[in-house]
Design a protein that fits this description.
heterodimer, A: 341 residues, alpha/beta, Uridine Diphospho-n-acetylenolpyruvylglucosamine Reductase, domain 2, Enolase-like, domain 1, five-stranded antiparallel sheet, four-stranded mixed sheet, 11 helices, 26% helix, globular, B: 169 residues, alpha+beta, Ubiquitin-like (UB roll), DNA polymerase, domain 1, 2 domains, five-stranded mixed sheet, 33% helix
């Protein structure tokens, strides 16, 4: 591992006192960044450890919102969301990701900012525009089974790996940040990620010296919810396709549909076209397939991942029909589709 | 001086901030019970317990755990007396080569507490329409961060099941 200069941030001194630039990185849990530093995919000159930032390690709420601190671990957030039926989707997504050991260290902000698991990004002997801009994309014409079908460009087809972010996009979470000049920003998670275009190394709207302080989620009824993740093994694997959905059925029609897709986009995918098609429609297989087709009209596959559109159609159909069936049987239900607690 | 508490005694943190907790245990403290398998958080052989929570020692810098209480396999039992899960591993033949075992046991000891606390797992939300998910299915899910290339999984799950039954008596 390359040497780095270590600084600490505990939330008290201003960010402007830290040497933040393109070669500095904030270190939260470290489950992704330390791994990338060992592989020399990341070679920061400066690390700013957030281990002593206790204030960011809390979850609070008022009448309207949940406020999740940047340093709240994935385990703690899953446990909290498990007790709140209107954000069960978040608990389901978190618990479907990684392992207990990783979730005990991984943080809310770190999860949002984790890097892709594209094999070529990790392999420093291969060309990768995300790791080394201008070198090319090794995935585009090669083995690309895990790669994206939405939001791709000729420069990059890497998938965003998060489960948590997919659920948060469905739930319309807001990211709150702090800048060195003391200003704060609120960015909808749905607008937070950038598609790769010809600058795949720039992944979010954050400035290099901007720090996520917390995430807020509006308290509202989200109906019956299900995070369904399809992957190569039943635990500890990234999604090939995942569907995060929450919905109600009123007068026999979809109402208040929350929806997002994982494993298929260069960013956690917010399927606006499909949602517009489905909201207010009758929950039939035909309607759902038409909605999937509307979204898939802008999809592009690359050979090894040609199976993903059909897998997405089938997963979306299964999830929405099961949720609708549950809502019809249990009108007004709020919480997980399956709950063995 | 910056320290962490390791198996009940305070130890000074290393000078080089690049030192992971795992390398700190091996190279500075000569504690080799915690194993290095993949060194990338994929295999779980380096699992230790920090402030009551199991973590991968390979994916955390030692300095991040300043002030923390860390328990490794060397601190799981009390002196010559084995932890009930260590005994169960022997009784159930829950290992072959043994390389993953210290990580499995640290993970399992944490699992016992997590299940007692009713921490949810993915199995809590799995598609089991008409019956509660089985305990063994739940244990397997919760232990998925610990690989065993000898394939001793069924016996590992049996050993953990035995201790859960013992604790419920």
């Amino acid at each position: 591992m390359q040497p780095f200069t270590l600084h600490h941030y505990n939330g008290e001194k201003p960010l402007s006192s830290l040497p933040l630039d393109t070669r500095s990185r904030f270190l939260a849990g470290g489950t992704n960044l330390i791994d990338l530093m060992k592989l020399q995919v990341e070679t920061p000159k400066t690390l700013v450890s957030l281990a002593k930032w206790d204030k960011a390690n809390t979850i609070s709420e008022d009448d309207n919102y949940y406020y999740i601190g940047a340093m709240v671990t994935n385990s703690d957030l899953a446990k909290f969301a498990h007790t709140q039926p209107n954000v069960s989707l978040l608990a389901q997504a978190l618990l479907s990701g990684a392992t207990v050991q990783l979730r005990n260290r991984a943080t809310t902000a770190g999860n949002l900012l984790q890097r892709t698991r594209c094999y070529y990004f990790y392999d420093t002997t291969k060309a990768c525009n995300k790791r080394e801009p201008g070198t090319g994309c090794s995935a585009y014409n090669s083995m690309n089974r895990i790669h994206a079908i939405f939001g791709t460009s000729e420069s990059c087809i890497a998938t965003h790996p998060s489960d948590m972010a997919v659920a948060m996009i469905a739930l319309n979470a807001q990211v709150h940040t702090q800048q060195p000049d003391g200003n704060t920003r609120q960015i909808a998670l749905r607008d937070f990620y950038r598609e790769p275009g010809d600058t795949p190394h720039i992944e979010t709207q954050l400035d290099e010296d901007e720090l996520i302080t917390h995430v807020s989620i509006k308290k509202k009824a989200n109906g019956t919810q299900y995070y369904h993740k399809v992957r190569d093994r039943s635990s500890y694997a990234f999604a090939l396709v995942s569907v995060a959905a929450g919905l109600k059925i009123e007068d026999g029609r979809f109402k208040d549909l929350s929806l997002a897709f994982g494993g298929v986009g260069t960013k956690p995918w917010y399927p606006q076209k499909a949602i517009s098609f489905l909201e207010g429609a009758e929950p039939t297989q035909e309607v759902i397939l038409q909605a999937a087709e509307a979204e898939l009209s802008k999809a592009k596959t690359f050979g090894s991942n040609d199976f993903k559109p059909e897998l997405l159609r089938r997963t979306l159909t299964k999830v929405l029909l099961e949720l609708a069936e549950h809502q019809v049987k249990h009108p007004g239900h709020e919480g997980a589709l399956y709950d063995n607690a | 001086m910056a320290t962490l508490n390791l198996n009940g005694r305070d130890v000074s943190l290393p000078d080089d901030p690049r030192t992971t907790l795992l390398d700190f245990l091996h190279q500075h403290l000569s504690l080799f019970g915690t194993k290095k398998g993949c060194d990338h958080g994929q295999c779980g052989a380096c699992t230790v317990i920090a402030d009551g929570k199991r973590i991968n020692a390979c994916l955390v810098f030692a300095f991040q755990l300043e002030g923390a209480e860390v328990t490794t396999i060397e601190g799981i039992g009390e002196g010559e007396s084995l932890h009930p899960l260590q005994k169960a591993f022997i009784e159930r033949d829950a290992f072959q080569c043994g390389y993953c075992t210290s990580g499995q046991i640290c993970s399992g000891v944490s699992l016992l507490r997590e299940m007692k606390n009713e921490d949810p797992s993915a199995v809590t939300y799995s598609q089991t329409r008409h019956s509660k998910a089985s305990l063994k299915e739940d244990i397997s899910e919760r232990m998925s961060g610990n690989l065993c290339r000898c394939g001793a999984y069924p016996n590992i799950v049996d050993a953990i099941t035995d201790v859960i039954a013992l604790e419920r008596q």
